[in-house]
Design a protein that fits this description.
TIM Barrel, two-stranded antiparallel sheet, alpha/beta, 8-stranded parallel β-barrel
Length: 318
């Protein structure tokens, strides 16, 4: 079991993200994963820095902490050749500590390049072609590729690491599970849904299984729920909605019905270590083995101390 910390880039300034990653290593986390968006989710969010620059700085400031994107869309806003090059370089400068998490994207960030927002089937077909291009470029040499959606012309990634990064693919149903099994090295999910892992394994999948555990450490449960509501109230909308809304204003309007009490149900809120262990256990029991704690509480340093002194030892003992 690997325990990670989610760097929520949509609401944290660039240098503070780097500082938190350093503190996460000191607190005993095994890895950090960072969202890779152009826009934040909500009007209250005032940040959304370039994830790859943040990860490079973290690689230079840490020694053992593993790094991951959670997740990058390599098929619309980025061309997969750029992601193949970026991931290979980051694997080299981090001394083999990088995992490439990829997914089909969200309209919120992918639409900015003016290519529209494809329907879900086309998004998965684009993702398949992107994975094929990345694998092709990582095989060494010069390559071209002509797909239905993506093309590559006489391209070569010159700096390849001795050990390539693992690719974990975001999974939300049987179609993406099959894709992750065929072209990925692992899977990434946001719900403690054992059926996703089973579908992936039936399709031949094996390897690491990533997920995010919603927590909100605070002096009391209400304070944790209020902090989670301010930062993460978009979460209960569900992935079919999250992928389709175009901008923070739309998310603000769509979350007007989400109450603080709803966040208390969705997040492990407050200081009770047993509540946090319980939330973690839901994902572990479903079969996930790389769990990133996504803390929505008001004080990250208090959360790091809580993890180092109480929560981390309990989770590892479990």
């Amino acid at each position: 079991m690997q325990i990670g910390y989610k760097l929520f880039a949509e609401d944290v300034a660039p240098k503070e993200l780097i500082r938190r990653a350093v503190e996460a290593e000191r607190a005993g986390f095994d890895f950090v994963e960072i969202s890779d968006h152009f826009h934040p989710w909500l009007p209250e969010h005032q940040h959304s820095p370039f994830a790859w620059a943040i990860l490079s700085a973290i690689a230079a400031r840490t020694d053992t902490l593993r790094l991951a994107t959670g997740v990058t869309c390599p098929s619309i806003r980025y061309h997969p050749a750029i992601i193949a090059q970026a991931a290979a370089t980051l694997q080299i400068i981090s001394d083999g500590r990088f995992t490439l998490g990829i997914g089909a994207g969200e309209r919120l960030s992918e639409r900015i390049v003016g290519q529209g927002w494809p329907e879900v089937g086309d998004r998965h077909r684009r993702l398949r072609e992107a994975l094929e291009i990345i694998r092709l470029l990582w095989s060494g040499g010069t390559h071209s590729y002509r797909g239905d959606f993506l093309q590559l012309q006489d391209a070569r990634v010159y700096d390849l690491p001795d050990v390539l990064p693992e690719i974990v693919v975001a999974v939300g149903g049987p179609q993406s599970a099959a894709l992750a099994a065929e072209l990925g090295d692992g899977l990434f999910a946001t719900d403690p849904d054992a059926s996703l892992i089973k579908a992936w394994q039936r399709a031949g999948g094996s390897g690491p299984r990533y997920a995010e555990v919603p927590t909100a450490f605070a002096p009391d449960e209400r304070a944790g729920a209020e902090a989670a509501h301010a930062r993460f109230r978009f979460g209960p909308l569900g992935w079919k909605v999250l992928a389709e809304l175009p901008d923070p204003t739309a998310f603000d309007q769509a979350t007007q019905h989400v109450r603080v009490e709803d966040m208390a149900d969705a997040f492990a809120c407050g200081p009770d270590v047993e509540r946090h262990v319980e939330a973690f256990g839901e994902f572990a029991d479903a079969g996930f083995d790389h769990l990133a704690l996504m803390d929505g509480g008001p004080d990250p340093d208090a959360f790091f101390a809580f993890f180092a002194d109480e929560l981390g030892p309990r989770l590892r003992a479990r």
